Amino acid sequence: MKTRLLKDTEEDIRIAAKIIEQGGLVAFPTETVYGLGANAMDADAVRKIYEAKGRPADNPTIVHIAEREELGQVTFLVTEDMKTLMDRFWPGPMTMIVPRGEYIPYVTTGNLETVGVRMPENEVARELIRRSGCPIAAPSANLSGRPSPTTAQHVIDDLDGRIDAVIQSGPCRIGIESTVIDMTGKIPMILRPGYITKKDFEEALGQEILLDPTLNRKPREGEDFHPKAPGMKYRHYAPRAEMIIFKGDRIRVEAAIDQERAEREALGQKVFVIDFDEDRETVAAHEIFAMLRQADREGADVILAAALPQRGVGFSVMNRMLKSAGFNVREV
Questions:
Q1: Where, in this chain's numbering, is L-threonine bound (predicted)?
Q2: Considering only CA atoms, which of 141, 124, 92 is closest in space to residue 17?
Q3: Annotated binding site for ATP
Q4: Which residues are known binding-site members for L-threonine?
Q5: Residue numbers of the domain that contains 17
Q6: Which residues sit in the known binding site?
Q7: Residue 307, domain CATH
Q8: What pTM was computed for the model?
Q9: Per-residue pLDDT tens for 120-177?
Q10: Is the CA virtual torsion 79, 230, 36, 102 positive or negative?
Q11: Is 150 found in the same domain as 52?
């Protein structure tokens, strides 16, 4: 298969929409990361997503809509709390887990009775959905398990020859995937942290919001479950290199990284360091995946990373870093 490289022009978006209509796969930009899209209501098309990415069949996709009126195609239930969150955070980087509507096939939901749905902020994405005439199922446009793509080149690096087309636009504004909040229980629960934080949801709803208890901790031996949202179960976002996260007092962390770097370089290893300022969590979100891919391009043998404070967006970035490192953490 030859992957078409399209621009984010009106003409090329029409071409991309035709590919979606015909059951093909198109990678497209959003404000979070690039998504790999197919007609969410076409089971055969969605199966192609799993094949192209090498994605486990029980890892659900997220359904993207362009307008709130399209929500009825995805779910049969819209609660007052859901309306409040849509008013506050859509279009934007929020995915809600809701009951699956009858028109959404099980392959789209990972065989669950629930489905993730969001309305992206990115206008190229929304125009693609409008012109396709259907909701678009789209996980991140990368090989399964690899760092998520925040530029069109990242998509091409992973999926060239595996998908029909890529809409080449600018870098993603946010850089980590949407926050996923489960709206099917008595109390809303964050299943995947993102740019919209627990505090943001609590302020919007005026109530406590739960965090999934598995977030940001190492899975217990033999632990297994069926994920309700992408990024929950498998080692995700992984670079090719070994990765170590150093956690503790900032001065001791930097000293430990310097010592580990010297020891590794003495062994002839190539070292890549990730050390964000603790108060620049949004910068870290924007750059973390690009830096992991840069380490791979430069042929790093090991990545040494300083942990961020687990608050606000920093909690979300640490979620990605911990999974990238396979929870390889050194307390210093």
A1: 32, 64, 138, 178
A2: 124
A3: 55, 59, 114, 118, 140, 148, 192, 237
A4: 32, 64, 138, 178
A5: 4-211
A6: 32, 55, 59, 64, 114, 118, 138, 140, 148, 178, 192, 237
A7: 3.40.50.11030
A8: 0.95
A9: 999 999 999 999 999 999 999 999 989 999 999 999 999 999 999 999 999 999 999 9
A10: negative
A11: yes
